[in-house]
Design a protein that fits this description.
Radius of gyration: 13 Å
Distance between the termini: 41 Å
Strand content: over 45%
Shape: globular
């Protein structure tokens, strides 16, 4: 019912910034909560940030709080993850996800219904 496509990943120096985009298909984007997750090789996929559909409220993992910001532009059917003060430990494949229960903030992988293909973020000097 929905397709998600991430973009904006790449190589960045420690302390640098990067903005990821997630383009969503369909007219139902406005009703979905959106989330960002990341997965490093050999590790479990972990929650990064989420934004609720109803009031646009946001929630962040402790590891990125104060450095990352999630946002959305419903007119463009796009969600974003602004990443600042990047650290080498932020290196991972970043995935966007859609939660059809748009009024909640979900932090677990199983709570999301649709996933993008992922985009690689590498923070290295």
């Amino acid at each position: 019912q929905v397709q998600l496509v991430e973009s904006g990943g790449g190589l960045v120096l420690p302390g640098g910034s990067l903005r990821l985009s997630c383009a969503a298909s369909g007219r139902t984007f406005a009703s979905y909560a959106m989330g960002w997750f990341r997965q490093a090789p050999g590790k479990e996929r972990e929650f990064v940030a989420a934004i609720r559909w109803g009031d646009g409220s946001t929630y962040y993992a402790d590891s990125v709080k104060g450095r990352f910001a999630i946002s959305r532009d419903n007119a463009k059917n796009t969600a974003y993850l602004q990443m600042n003060s990047l650290k080498p430990e932020d290196t991972a494949v970043y995935y966007c996800a859609a939660d059809t229960r748009g009024w909640r903030i979900a932090t677990r992988v199983y709570e999301y219904d649709y996933w993008g293909q992922g985009t690689q973020v590498t923070v290295s000097s």
